[in-house]
Histidine kinase
Amino acid sequence: MEDPDTRRGMVALLLCSGGWAALELGFLLTPGTLGYAFYLGSLIVGLATVGAWLYFCSAYTGRAFHRNRLYRAVAAGTYLGIVMVKLTNPFHGLYFATQFVSDPFPHLTITHGVFHWVVTGLSYALVAVGFFMLFELFLEADYDTRPLGVLVGITALPAALDIAGYVSNALLDINHEPLGVALFAVGILYVFDEAFLAVQLTDGVDDAVVYLDDDDHIKESNGEAKQLFPTLSGSRGQHLDAVLPAITEILETDDQILERTRNGETEYFFISDTSFSLGQVDIGRMLVFTDVTDSERQRRELDRQNEQLEGFATAIRHELLNTLQIITGRVDVAGDALNRGDVGLAKESLQSTAETADRMSKIVDGLATLARHGQTIDETTPVDLQPVVDGAWKRADTNGLTVAADVDGQVIADPTRLRDLFESGFTFAAHNGASTVTVTRNADEIVITDDGTPAGETAPEAFFEYGGAIPDAAAGMTLPNLRMLARTHGWDVSLDVTYQDGVRIVISNVTVAGPVEN
């Protein structure tokens, strides 16, 4: 026991219990005046056991009752007052009376008086206060209280023996409490030591906690841990790798973040792995799972937005360079035409320059809109897919492309961004040389397929890179925009590399309204 006050309380409890039992034994073995002295001593030492018990419970549960001067003064005064009543018992006989008998062996019989039962009732009430402190700590730490309940039952058993000795001749009418106190102390030290140590270590921790021994066998886990990992129930004594193999793998990495999905929501937990030792020897480890869902979501959203902004910067730089080259070339052509007196050609070149600049302006405005849309969506709603697909088709520059859509049902999305997503897919298909584009939904996937130019040897990720100019400069940002709009919903986008009759875009992990169709 590392805490000195807890250790001091336990040592006092063991000493008082042992001394109490020894004096009771002396009373049984030595009838007469010496036996009377032994019994009186047992009453005095036995009462001190209550004080040692309360001291231990207060220190173990992190309270300061045992250090409070007023409580200590009241306890000492009450103890001394009761001791004085016991010491003066030969004069008033209020506590007990004795009689020498020879059957079934020579000994003093004890007849307890009213004051004895008053003090006994007070003692048991104070003992109950100590147990209440222990139970409260176990409950706050969210640990199984059954081991403590077993010890409470063992400690309370002598009360039944006392009553049996008082009302019948089956047992001697003596104090059996030393047996219960001793069994409780032994139970803590040798039977439930892991549970009591784990509870004390995790007092005040609201997170999921798994307590391991030095060989990574599971010794204890609190209720939060069992809710997070149902496999922990009944796993005491098993190796961590057998019960939670994913945790073992995460602990071997630098990024100790656990990602779990419960009730359709993705949660993130930071795993802190703390070893503790006794002296120079490691005696166990404690894994604490702290819920960092909000901060981790923000971090990942910032990473996504930073990646998106880098993509925007690349796209704008690419478009600006292309536009400046075109404008420079057109201006040169116009200048040469004017030098030759060809006003028509010069006017045509300058008109083309203006159109190029205007196209660049629209691209920048479009990227600004996408930057606003690129923020994570705060509010979504069930959206009918078919009307959104129809609206995107009307807005897209499809150049004679035809569409076939089979998208019955609803998804949870932002209607405007979902429409822009489909518009980007249709625009890409038009620039990819397709004649037909189809849209289908299967379970939690939306698939956009065209019959245009296949990906061929082009790396799939190149289609989603800003500035990649696939299939051409005019449509080079369509698929990057499509992926960005999908990610704002928490969806994934990939290219089906097995499809060779055109390009197939797969949007997965789509949140469907209602039951998922298979």
